[in-house]
Design brief:
Number of helices: 4
Helix content: 40-55%
Shape: globular
Distance between the termini: 34 Å
Structural class: mainly alpha
Organism: Solanum stoloniferum
Order of helices and strands: HHHH
Keywords: Metal-binding, Zinc, Zinc-finger
Protein name: CCHC-type domain-containing protein
Radius of gyration: 15 Å
GO molecular function: zinc ion binding
């Protein structure tokens, strides 16, 4: 996936990922949903999504592939999604916990 990601390219990325998982499962490799989600997050997203990865896994014991997919599509379909694409624009980050600008949930005092 490239910088300046659109919803269409994220959808394509998700479809490509699911195709690879399906191929592995057809070879009798069983992959649970949480592992699929973590593989998708940690191994296939570009470095520009590091803040997104941190936010979605922060404080969670488990995470589902559906949660990852819906969150990815959500950030790409909203104007605020640009906050995850550039680490140089850290001041524009919006906290998912309190909604304030300038910090992320893991650094939220509320």
């Amino acid at each position: 996936m490239k910088q300046g990601t659109t919803t269409a390219s994220v959808t394509s990325h998700i479809n490509d990922f699911e195709s690879i998982v399906t191929d592995l499962e057809n070879l009798d490799e069983k992959i649970d949903d949480g592992t699929k989600a973590l593989l998708m997050l940690l191994r296939t997203l570009p470095c520009s999504y590091e803040d997104f990865v941190d936010e979605i896994v922060d404080g969670k014991d488990t995470i589902s592939l559906d949660e990852v997919k819906s969150s990815l599509l959500k950030i790409c379909s909203t104007e605020s999604s640009s906050q995850f694409r550039s680490r140089s624009r850290k001041g524009d980050v919006v906290c998912w916990n309190c909604g304030k600008i300038g910090h992320v949930r893991r650094n939220c005092d509320e």
